[in-house]
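Researcher: Structure prediction, please.
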Amino acid sequence: MDATSKTQPDIGSDTGPGADRRSRCWARFTSSPLGRLVIGLVGIGLVSGLTATGPGPIPVLGAAVAVAVYWWVTHRVAGRPVPEIARRGAVREAALGGGIGLGFILVPVLILTLFGGYSFSRAGHGFLPVLWTTVVVQIGGAVTEELLFRGLALRAFEEMWGSGAAVVITSLFFGVAHLGAEEATLWSALAIAVEAGVLLGAAFLWRRSIWFVAGLHFTWNAAEQLLGIPVSGHTPEGWFTLDAHGPAFLTGGGFGLEASILPVLLGAAIAAWMLRRARTSGGIKTRTRAAC
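Model: Predicted structure follows.
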């Protein structure tokens, strides 16, 4: 073998300038906000799609796997700390968010019931079976959706364009994501964008905790399901059967309470209060890095 052959690169090898360039490109992609968002959306979206409607405790197990995927993408791939899913204080944050979410639903339900807009009758589905199904399904949905929309999307857009733009963008996405539901309309999508997208976005900016926003999200949807109120257009098996009377603008019509003007106004008021608290505590961020 001559000297020339010894210095020729192995065409089939993964080493060399090309491999180094690919490695650098991959490192830049994974460390960028959009890279972290894309990888996380694929991973958590796949977990959610496989487990969201599974039997027994499968949705809860799926939520646990989604948290692990989120930690891996954010901490191991992107190299960023993940205080938003810290175990310390998680129960306290979830309980605080859950209390706000429960009040957010019960106040407009009470108003509509007192003034004749809602009436309830026992559904006869069984107390414990309904409770079990509601808890496991809504935990799975709340955790995975908050990891996707607040943990990944809001934080990625916040790094690129600041907190205000991030809340607006994720709120619009959240509203559009619910257009495929039964009885959905442009109004219901706008209502969801305001009362859910803006409210949950403000909640995250205030507390910077996935457990807080997931707790709020969970009790919101669980309370609706247990009362037999359609959850984003999907009518669940609850403890009661709902009869709505009056204009859909007030009752929400077939889409459910979330298309009523009452939670929209209440959600906007709570979100404004949370945003003030977030600004006071330094939770509102400006653009910190250029988009990739």
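Model: The beta strands are 118-122, 240-244.
Researcher: Thanks, that helps.
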